[in-house]
Write the C-alpha cells for this entry.
Amino acid sequence: MSEVIKLRTPLKEKEIKELNIGDFVELSGTLFFARDRIHKLLAEKVNPKFQEKRKCKAVYHCGPIAKKENKKYKIISAGPTTSKRMEEFQEKILKEYKVKAVIGKGGMGKNTLKALEKCGAVYLLAVGGTSALLAEKVVEVKNVFFEKEFGLPEALWEVEVKDFPLIVSMDSKGKSLHEKVLEQSLKKLRGIE
Amino acid sequence: MKTDLTHAIVELYKITSTTLPEEVKEKINKAKEKADGLEKKALDSVVENIEIAEKKSVPLCQDTGLPVFFVFYPKTVSQKEIEKSILQATEQATEKNILRANAVDSFTQKNLGNGVGEKIPTIYFEEWEKDFIKINLLLKGGGSENIGKTYSLPNPELKAGRDLNGIRKCVLDAAIKAQGLGCPPNIVSVVVGGSKDAVAVEAKKLFFEMHKKNEKKETAEFEEKLLKEINSLGIGAMGLGGKTTALDLKTKFLARHPATFFVEIAFCCWAERKHSLEWKSGEAKYE
C-alpha cells in the first residue's frame, strides 16, 4: 500500500484495472481541469473535438487560480473541488470521452462507481485544500477553452502535470473507499445512539 | 506602518488567504501525530501545503472562499466608508490573485469577475466603545459552507427532541452526512435557539472564539463530548477513514421564541482562514 505507483497519460486500461482502493499514485501527463459548467456542457452535447483530445486522459474537478505571464497562463493554485456535484454528468463523460481517470475530492456516487467499472476507469482523490502543493506539480498550461463563456475558474483547462500525488478511492472493480467509510461510520453511530 | 485602510485590508486578505493562525496549525499538527495510513498521508500533504503557501505567499487553497467580515468600529467612524474600503480591497485582492474571482450572478450564472457582488463579501458591523476599528476576516470555503445544516427541533426523523440529546443527534447527523465533502478535519460551530438568521450569523462569528475555553463548565463538557463523539465515527481526514474528523467544536446558546428551536451547524474546512486587523490613526496591526 505504501508504494507509489507511477502512471502516465495516455492511460492504459490494463494498468488502470490493476489499481485498488487505498493505492498511492503519482500521475504525469495531461489533465483536463473541468468543473460544474463544463461537465454539464460536454455531457448535454457530445463534442467530437474533446472526444479526441480527452481520450485516455484524466479529468480533474478543479477551478484553479491562474495569472497571465507573457500571454501564457501560469497556475498558482490548483486543488480539487467537491466531486459530488458532477455526479449527474460523470457517467456520460466517462462513456463518451473515454477518460480513464476522474480526479477530485469527497468521492462520487453509485452511478459513477458503476460507470468506472463499465469503462475500466478509476476515481483518484487529491487531498482537498492542498492547492499550493498541487500547483507545484503543474508543468504548463497547454490550452484554455470556454474562458469567455464561463470565466476562468469554470473554464476547461488542458494542463501538463508531473507526479501529481493521488489516492485511489474508487477502483474499476466496484469498490469505493467512500462507501466503506460511510458504512463504518453509520455502524459506529448506531453504537452510540 | 502608515497606509490607507483599503491597502491595509488588501494586506489582511493576503495574510488570511496564504497563512493559518498558529492555533489552527497546532491542532492540525496534533492530528497528524496521531494519524496513520491514508489519514497520515493526507495530513502530511496538508502540512506541506501550509508550508509552501506560507513560504511562497500563495493562496492555501484555490477556493479562496467567501469573505465574511465582522467589523467593530467607534462611533466617530463612518460605516459606509469602511464598507467602501472593503469592497475596493476585495477588487484589488482579486486583481492580484490573492483571491479567486468568487462572485457569480445567481440569475445569469455569469462570474462577475472582480470578486464583488450583492452580499459578497458579506459584512457585519457592530459599534463598540473602543477608539479603534477592528476587522475580523474569515475566508470560508464553499465546500464546507455547503455541508452546513439548520435543524428545527423536534425532528421526528432523527428522534431529536428539544434538549441536549436532541442537539447532539443533529450534530452527529450533520457529521455523518458531511463525510469527506467539506475537507475534514473540520472545525465545527453549533448555535442553538434564536431566529433562523441569528443562528446562522452567530455560527460564523463563533469561528473567532474557537481558541477560547468555554467558561461555563457544563457547556465545555458538552462540547468535549460532541467533539469526541464526532471523532469516534472514524470518518477521518478527507473522509478516508481515521481518527480526526473534527479538530475543534464550539457551541453557543441564544434565547429562542417559545415555538422555535433551531440548531445551526456550520463546518469549516481544515483551512480555517481567519485573521484580524486593528486600525488606529492610520496604523495597522495584524493578528
